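can u pls check wat happens w/ guanine
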Amino acid sequence: MTYIIDGKKIASEIRNEIKNQAQSLLDRGIIPTLAVILVGDNRASRSYVNSKHKACLENKINSVKIELAENISEENLLQEIEKLNNDNSVHGILVQLPLPKHINSEKILEAITIEKDVDGFNPINVGKLTLGTAELIPCTPLGIMSLIESVEENIEGKNALVIGRSNIVGKPVASLLLQKNATVTIAHSKTKNLSELIARADIIVSCVGIAHFLTDEYNYKNTATVIDVGNNYKDDKLVGDVDFEKVKEKVKHISPVPGGVGPMTITMLMYNTILAQKVQNNK
Ligand code: GUN
């Protein structure tokens, strides 16, 4: 029988713990606070920011939304970040991506102080992740690891295949799996022998962003765990990278879309906000 990994349930258990931790901070007079910057009026970005804001408030984390005009200059945006860096009442800072074209995103991400970088996108934190010394780890990869660990007692020595090499998901999740002593392969659009790699994978993380990219035409290990990070639309319906109904018959554990990785990402953002507060106060 295939086990469907319930991201909603796992996220809700972690959220209960976050809420308890937030309450104990409040009891000590500390208000855990996340500042989210939204530049311009991208509809999808606004909807993500609203979801983050709502989740924070539901979990006793203060959320400050900062909405800035599409035509704000890079310099003024850097000044906004500097204000938040220096504001002791703010523990986490997130700049919603993508930013308008006239702004250099790398420069903006570099400006966020590393102890408040709840996205883990500052190049210093990216480097620390590779070294295995990062405190703030990008939210989606962190959520993916929780899902894997909910079904895989021991990752060590397993063949892990990450399909996709983005800076936000593929590369960091590969680093995290490597830290758990998995044998990690990263596949991407130029990979030639994907079916061979799939056939020997114990853990597959798909983050290619192509609807139903993984079909039942591949040979999967019947003991495999498949994590679907896809967030794609097909015929107006949210679907993953994996053809869930078909692939679920061939593997041991699989995460659905929706209800798999999605609920974990915002949960880990709140987790990182609480962690950032601890990092700042233990300095
Ligand atoms: N836009 C899409 N995903 C993300 C994310 O994880 N963090 C930020 N800051 N922007 C995003």
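Residues 139-262 form a domain with the Rossmann fold fold (CATH 3.40.50.720).
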